[in-house]
């Protein structure tokens, strides 16, 4: 009897934290339509779960994700047919970026092409010292299509983004940290522990405040300053209608840990 293949996306729950692992090691976690569909489905389930407050997205020690599945894409027809075939697939990267709960990318090894774009769609990126980031699509006759030209430019600025997108230049973890692409760099052996520790810290905080904070920071990148400030103020004022705000401030005054309920 043949053993069932392992799922391409594995989900582990650890209290209020979910660890989502890309699991195509032989293909260096190439982001096929099947894998991305499974990832979107897993994230939808976690988004709807009231017990989960933070998500860690990771891959393997050799690769977070080494890019799109080129063997799947190379024979696509041109024009409207290619657009139709790719539109649903590329929208799954946007799904990651639109999650209301905080998502931490734990990146070891290669994060190239779609893998780099997937990390950029997350809220925080914790990188192992051996992590490598890049957008080499131009070397295949295409460009980043899952947000790379936009999110990368917002993260590292025009000059470096142009260098990476036009030449395929790669960034090692330390330079990625210096340039603003990643949040933290740690030794490979503690990568997942650090990402989970950070996720547990986020899970202790007020869920509605975290959601508002995510939206407000995103507004600073995705809109002009005036509209971003307006969005920030609206979110800030709105939080004063929540029980968590009252609990958080009350607990501070009473010098005790707050107990947040997401209300």
Number of domains: 2
Give the CATH superfamily of the largest domain. 2-enoyl-CoA Hydratase, Chain A, domain 1
CATH architecture of the largest domain: Alpha-Beta Complex
- Radius of gyration, Cα only, in angstroms? 19 Å
Oligomeric state of the chains? single chain
Shape: globular
Would you kindly provide a written description of the structure presented here, covering whatever features stand out?
By secondary structure, the chain is α/β, with parallel strands linked by helices. Helix 1 runs parallel beside helix 3 (79-97) and helix 9 runs antiparallel to helix 10 (225-238). Helix content is 48%, strand content 16%. The protein has helices at residues 33-48, 70-73, 79-97, 114-120, 148-156, 158-167, 173-178, 191-203, 207-222, 225-238, 243-254, and strands at 9-14, 17-22, 54-58, 63-65, 103-107, 110-112, 124-128, 132-134, 170-172, 184-186. Strand 2 (17-22), helix 1 (33-48) and strand 3 (54-58) form a beta-alpha-beta unit. A six-stranded mixed sheet has the order 1-2-3-5-7-10, sandwiched between helices. The protein has two domains: 9-203, 2-enoyl-CoA Hydratase, Chain A, domain 1 (Alpha-Beta Complex); 207-254, Orthogonal Bundle (Lyase 2-enoyl-coa Hydratase, Chain  A, domain 2).
